[in-house]
Amino acid sequence: MPLFVTGLPEPGWLGRITFPAMVSYSRLARRPLPRHLIARCPTYVDSRGFTELKKHGRWTITPHAYVDWLRNHREKINLQWAAPQDWMCEPAIIHGGRFGRETFAGTHLSVREHLHRTVDNFLTLRQLAPDLKIFPVVQGWELDDYLHCVELYAAAGVDLAALPLVGIGSVCRRQSTAEIGQIVTTLAGLGLRLHGFGVKTLGLLRYGSYLTSADSMAWSKDAFHSPPLPGCVHRNCANCLLYAVQWRARLLARLHTPQHHTERKAA
Ligand SMILES: [Zn+2]
Fold first, then answer.
1. pLDDT > 90: what percent of the chain?
2. How far is the CA of 231 from the centre of ligand 1 (A)?
3. CA-CA distance, 192 to 167, in Å (whole number)?
4. Most buried of 14, 78, 199, 201 (most Cβ within 10 A)?
């Protein structure tokens, strides 16, 4: 079973937990970090790609700005891994439009162009910051796209199978778990040590053994639709560290995962 990385909305919580956590760059960089923050957990940074492309149809955060922020704050947040500024390949991201209550700007580019831009961005980030642990992401929509993306990395001299971590993009919003499973098992079969973004519990149970690590913020949605915990005074626990900690413990019990990091309750 993979190392489970809990998605958190509040950078300040990083000083109160010891298990691996993921925080979005948008949350981290929106305002100065709490002055006395010293993260006690290994922190994964999500680059906020989905929100960025959904809203703008392009990246407005430059690789320089991203790398500078990571470099200036890596000790404070105890940076473990940072995601690149990749280009998701969901049809909504590419074509744009209204989907329920969500509006997508659309990049109006091809999937293949997204793959090229994803690989180019990784090369740029690696060149700008060889000292930072930024992992590449394999993007795509159909299985063939992912395999093509792997080839693009290889052609650029990046041997993905030799790297400790490779993200797998554009899977978290799919409906079909079987489709995700096929992509994950194929890429794992190439020897890639995969990180799954926003993996649902069902997905972890089905194909978690093919992942090296996976993150999820599903606890927050779960809490939103549940009554608050006994003793909590907020209307729901969607933004509650105690709920996140307890949800994580329940998930790990379901997965029977011996995790590598020391477990400790929130301070
Ligand atoms: Zn609560």
1. 86
2. 8
3. 9
4. 199
Residue 36 alpha carbon to ligand 1 centre in Å: 24
CATH domain 8-216 topology: TIM Barrel (3.20.20)
Which residues make Cβ contacts (< 8 Å) with residue 51, sequence separation at least 6?
Answer: 24, 26
Give the ranges where 106-217 is alpha helix by DSSP (H): 111-128, 143-155, 177-189, 201-207
Q: In whole angstroms, give the CA distance from residue 130 to residue 111.
A: 28
From the number of C-beta atoms within 10 Å of its C-beta (0-12, 13-18, 19+), residue 135 rates as buried
Q: What confidence tens digit (pLDDT) does each residue in 81-136 have?
A: 999 999 999 999 999 999 989 999 999 999 999 999 999 999 999 999 999 999 99
Domain spans of the chain, in order of start? 8-216, 220-260
149 CA → ligand 1 middle, Å:
42
> 223: CA distance to ligand 1 center in Å?
8
Distance 244 CA to ligand 1 centre (A): 9
CA of residue 1 to ligand 1 center, whole Å: 28
Listed residue (5, 188, 170, 159) closest to 81, CA to CA: 5
CA of 230 to the centre of ligand 1 (A): 8
Question: For residue 78, how far is its CA from the centre of ligand 1 (angstroms)?
Answer: 26
Instruction: Extract the tokens encoding 106.
Output: 């659309």
pLDDT tens string 215-264: 999 999 999 999 999 999 999 999 999 999 999 999 999 887 555 444 44
Residues, the chain, total?
267
| Ligand 1 midpoint to CA 10 (Å) | 14
